[in-house]
## 1
Amino acid sequence: MQSPSQLSALNSQALGVELEALRDRLRPGQQRLADWTGGPLAVSAVPGSGKSTGMAIATAILLGRRYQNALRDRTLPSRQIFLVTFTRSAAANLRAKIRELLKELGLPTTGFSVYTLHGLALNIASRHPDLSELDLTRLTLITPERGNRLIKTAVEQWSALHPDLYRQLLEGQQVDAEETERLRRRSVLGTEILPNLANTAIHEAKSSGLSPDDVRAIAQSADFSPSYITEDGLNLLPNNIALQVAAGLYEQYETLLHQRSFLDYDDMILAALRVLQNDEARQSWQQQVYAVFEDEAQDSSPLQTRLLELLAADSHTGQPNLVRVGDPNQAINSTFTPADPLFFREFCAQCQRQGRLAEMDQAGRSTQPIIDAANFLVQWVNNAPDRPLAASPLPFRLQAIRPVPPGDPQTDSNPPPEGEGVEIRFPPDIYRSVDLIAQRVAELFAREPEARAAVLVRENRMGRFVATVLRNPTEYKLGADLGALGIAVYEVGERDRHSHVPGEILTLLQFCDRPHSPDNLKAALRVLADRQLIPPQDLDALSSQPEDFLYPGPLETPQPDPVVQARRYCAGLLRARVELPQFQLIPFLALTLNYDQTELATADKLAARIAQQTASEPSLQFTLEVLSEIVQSERFEPVETEDIDTRYVRPKQLTIITMHKAKGLDWDFVFLPFLQQQTIPGKAWVPPAQQFLGEFDLAEVARAQIRAQVHQSPLPDIHTAWQQAQQLKIAEEYRLLYVAMTRARRLLWMAAERQAPFSWANPSNLQAQQPTPVLNALMQALGRS
Ligand SMILES: Nc1ncnc2c1ncn2[C@@H]1O[C@H](COP(=O)(O)OP(=O)(O)OP(=O)(O)O)[C@@H](O)[C@H]1O
């Protein structure tokens, strides 16, 4: 903090008046934050209730009060408020807000630090390299690309080291598979099942503080039935197979990580925890901390929470000075990260018992009909009669959103609705649905050019479809041409896709270099299928015997049409490799991949850079080396700045964005097309190529079993674990819909098309589909039929 002379310039009384005025600007739940004086506090907040705003104002008030005390006591407070949030952009926003408030109060902009969780961990770990064993001059943070390669190597090494377990997996449920089938299974195991298992189980275990030995101990301790063959000749795998394999893969992964001097994100947290286990270091950190405020607390893993609890613990009482703010109903990361909303809910329940739970349930964002629809969703999903596992936790915390009272400081709070506020449509198909959106958007912007609007979709491929149709109004016979009306169509996924260009080109070049490698062939086919250039099909069947696929003999059964299409593409690539000069290869691949204008520009830039770097030795081999280096050195995450967020909410722009990315943002008009039952809640299914193991996904089984251990519940057998995984997915899909619905301020437009694609890899292949069941229920509740 600052010097006593600076302090004396402040007038304590005047400051007190200003702080009171600032407190009056807060809603009741936010005031509980500002009134915090010590100990744990849980704040369970609804969407739009002002979590970040509340946290910023509360921090400024707390700092202000400490200055008042400092003026009175003539002692300078040295401890800081640590604020921890999830993303770098959220941290930047929060820091800016607090600084601005402190300046308004005439206070120095110090006394607090804003971190992301990993930033904080890195800070702690790197200040004590001896304790954390984190030597940043030697270690590098692993990139996703390198991580994938490491997992692949771990899988290969594990398969060679554990022939018995590998054989057991290969045999699956049916021991006597033919040679072709065994080859196909090898391909699926090596490229899908085991890498998925490794990725999921390692992350889940590591962020729960479990080592490979711990995972092995869980596998061995369980009273699990061994593998046996049924009377029908079915081989039933032992219930601990997923954990046994996961423990081995995890061990291999850790060895490789250390050998190559890499560290992953979990290592940073573990390193910081090692520091805080040392009494002296821990006390020294604790003495710097006045309080820890955590935002988005529903997204923290157990290890991250442990770090914050230790840091926030009062060195005398051991009580954590920890304020955790979150919305359990907006937990949308639990199916692909170890974050588990249950932990935060448990924290809320614990705090409630001690009278230390604040509810921020008033929100000014949306118009009343939208609030009603969101509240209806929460009630309906929790009471849905078809929850397969009645004992599993409820998907939502029963917390209703309430509008703010009159006189709330937010300007334009709970605005009047546009039309009825909630519009529900059942268009005949997805093309007609986009047409309806185009017409409604044109009409809305004609009246209100300054408004903000967005289409929120479940996956990027849907967003791409919407953008393509909107940008070609004549071809798709749309009733409105947004471009001609000066309305920008901004597809967010498009920007992210450009970072895929080097990776895709590398994959195709690796195939050109060694086309007979099943892995290279499969990876190239996956790129072609993802870009919808070849029909979706069983890629393992094609890639397990590359020669048969690439050069079918005249006496063999003719290949089916989708296979022929895939083969033609591959043959074209191989011909290009022989016939084209080296420098034309990348532009050719870019055209083959049907890149759009911006992607082509990225590919051209890439080609120019590679040509320059390989000028002395223009061979394919050297090109591959240079390109691999470019791909591997990519940044882990693009640095998201405030600027990016504001690009998503520009006036007179229709933003097309995934529901996940839309979290934290809002628009006046929000369109949610493609609400089919198949997607929301959807059904976790096992791809046919993986069914030789049984009707379950090995990675999800391992995750559910590790979760059970962490929550100290009985370990589920394979089938119960798989059911639990499905339950988790259903709950999360509905929470995602809740996040999407609560982004809307004045109009929430939802549609379930009667004809929609079975797979968005091929949007033109329409079939009859059911709407998500909650939509029908909502129609009834609204008295519309
Ligand atoms: N006390 C307040 N006074 C004035 N405006 C407020 C107040 N609290 C919140 N707001 C306004 O409400 C809106 C929502 O706030 P914020 O983005 O902090 O909500 P949130 O709870 O983080 O939302 P979500 O969880 O849905 O992302 C913002 O525009 C913010 O300025």
## 2
Amino acid sequence: METSLLAAASVAARATVASPCSRPVSLRSDVARAAVRCRSAATKNVQGSVLLTLDDELLSSAEVIQWESGKSINAIAAAQGIRIRRRCRPRYPSEGVGADRAVPGSILEQIVWDKEVEVSQRKAKAPLRKVEDSAARAPPPRDFAAALHAASQRNDGLPALIAEVKKASPTRGLLREEFNPVEIAHTYEKNGAACLSILTDEKHFLGSFENLETVRNSGLNCPLLCKDFIIDIWQIYYARSKGADAVLLIAAVLPDLDIKYMLRVCRSLGMTALVEVHDLRELDRVLKIDGAQLIGINNRSLGTFEVDTANTNMLLEKRGDIIRKKKIMVVSESGLFTPDDVAYVQNAGVSAVLVGESLLTQEDPGQAIAGLFGKELLH
Ligand SMILES: O=C(O)c1ccccc1NCC(=O)[C@H](O)[C@H](O)COP(=O)(O)O
């Protein structure tokens, strides 16, 4: 009996079927969970029948029904209210016909479709087994959530800062001509950032895994969030292998079972997951999933991509009680520019803020931190 989730995930990944769009998205998760309990059975029959016979408390009947129904990823996701569709790998025709065919409905959908291509190319070069080995050799992870908590404590309850290292964004274009990620990271840390968020998406944010790795190896103490668009557990292992301590899981992109499974993979690697929501439906989904320790409320609308910090306030007014009961930390993300913005989300009940643009567009992004908070932060 194999009880290591790491090994289980490896079994699961090797069991990935040909066309993700024509199968339940949960297949890999289900096989992995089966593998946690009974590796030999899972490896013997990766196509699913084992799921129906395994006495595994992790598989609910709903999950089995989902498997049996043979619904596509997009049908399962749509049933959960997920608006971001998956296109599937380019060699497979996309779902839908006519106007629906291969036309992304939003910036985020375009990013996710591009990510599918990127991840399949990266996986071809570095299969999961190899990336798992590199992850196991990486310097041990740092406790991202604990660093946020400690920073807030030493700053009299001010929200802790996750400062973002981002050169460009799809909505704002180039944020900074002179972009030295290591310099920016160090000035952030010196000026009181608790953690850093490093963009690794190349196509839309001009980030890179090289930036993540170089920042990690530059003698910095802050834990690092790999800010990318995760659609596959391979990316979590890869992020760890490059020194990430945390990853972002976006509820607008990932069905519940994938979030559940990815949270377990993160735990097995000693990483923190920042689970991001944009609206009440996503927040309610995430609150039903055991194990989310850190929830990010993004103030950027997925419809218009405009930012409005009232989103944080509105969601915490509605679900703050449950969040506090579950001792979940909340991060307000996007669109924070002034001390009033920070005070507003602090009063709403957040433990941390994730800030990029307002720091990066100033000459010294580190010194800009005092301007954002209205005072210098202790570090
Ligand atoms: O920033 C964008 O244009 C964007 C577009 C589509 C998906 C995600 C996007 N941004 C990611 C983020 O959430 C932000 O980088 C992060 O919250 C910091 O926001 P800001 O302080 O407003 O730069």
